[in-house]
Amino acid sequence: MIKIAIFASGAGSNAANIIKHFQKSATVSVALIVCNKPGAGVLQIAADNRIPTLLIDKERFFKGDAYLPDLKIAGIDFIVLAGFLWKVPDALIAAYPNKIINIHPALLPKYGGKGMFGAKVHEAVIAAGEKESGITIHFVNEHYDEGAPIFQAVCSIDQNDSPDSLAKKIHELEYAHFPLQIEQLLNKL
To answer: How far from chain centre, in Å, is Cα 89?
Structure first.
């Protein structure tokens, strides 16, 4: 059984979708939800699905042990960032080489980097007059949104699209592709 940890900071819609996808899997288990915000919706999703949670502290995450002992005790084999807003520390990247992935709500390398998440990305894409956007699933390295790409999916941007309507299109792509791409990667382990 491959055990994955989902790191999330917010409502947890992608986490919920991933949990649902793997609920009946004989080979993959969502074994831990890691969150950096008390009261985040993803914690309730974890409780509803009887998945253990780990609420992390910034100081320990970045200047301490990066919670590596906790991840090892939980038997975590693979890490999925699903709306996790902190940069992953080098110690965690070193402990899980090519076993940490992220989803970004734009077609990297455009509109990535520090501070580019959620509505900020969609606002920048619309303001630039782009004709398309999409999602990028990529490996995590030491730099924001610069890890090797795994998969991209594209959607068109209509003349009347707003950041909110674009966000809905992006969410549809995330829900359709993220769990399947995770499954394909895990099948190669």
So the answer is: 15
* CATH number assigned to the domain comprising residue 60: 3.40.50.170
CA pair distance 84, 88, nearest whole angstrom? 9
Question: Which pTM was predicted?
Answer: 0.96
Whether residue 170 contacts residue 134, with contact meaning beta carbons closer than 8 Å, is answered with yes
Give the whole-angstrom CA distance, residue 40 versus residue 71. Answer: 20
The dihedral region occupied by 83, where left means phi > 0, alpha psi between -120 and 50, and beta the remainder, is left
Residues 69 and 120 in one domain: no
Do 127 and 48 lie in one domain? The reply is no
Nearest to 60 by CA among 52, 69, 72: 69
Active-site option among 21, 104, 122, 138 = 104
Q: Where are the alpha helices (DSSP H) in the chain?
A: 13-22, 41-48, 58-63, 68-73, 90-95, 118-127, 163-187
Into how many domains does the chain fold? 2
138 annotated active-site: no
- pLDDT tens digit string along 80-112? 999 999 999 999 999 999 999 999 999 999 999
Closest to 175 in 3D by CA, of 7, 10, 8, 16:
16
Low pLDDT (below 70) residues in the chain: none
Q: Range of 186's domain? A: 104-189
DSSP lists the bridge partners of residue 132 as 156
